């Protein structure tokens, strides 16, 4: 696999993960229960993780 293809796949995976974390956060914020609060916290932690990964690569 060429380097360009590998970088493209990694970028696509990061985008998909970010969208999944945002969707989990939105689903968690829609309802009020302890389980939905857990989903929201997981989603927010994922978004923060993705931002940390992005900022680390732009150093």
UniProtKB/TrEMBL annotation:
The keyword Transmembrane helix applies. It comes from the Bacteria. The chain crosses the membrane at residues 9-28, 34-54. Keywords: Membrane, Transmembrane, Transmembrane helix. Pfam families: DUF6903. InterPro entries: DUF6903. This is Uncharacterized protein. It comes from Bifidobacterium goeldii.
């Amino acid at each position: 696999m060429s380097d360009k293809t590998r970088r493209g796949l990694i970028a696509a995976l990061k985008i998909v993960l970010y969208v999944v974390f945002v969707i989990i956060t939105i689903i968690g914020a829609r309802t009020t229960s302890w389980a939905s609060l857990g989903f929201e916290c997981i989603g927010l932690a994922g978004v923060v993780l993705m931002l940390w990964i992005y900022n680390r690569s732009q150093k």
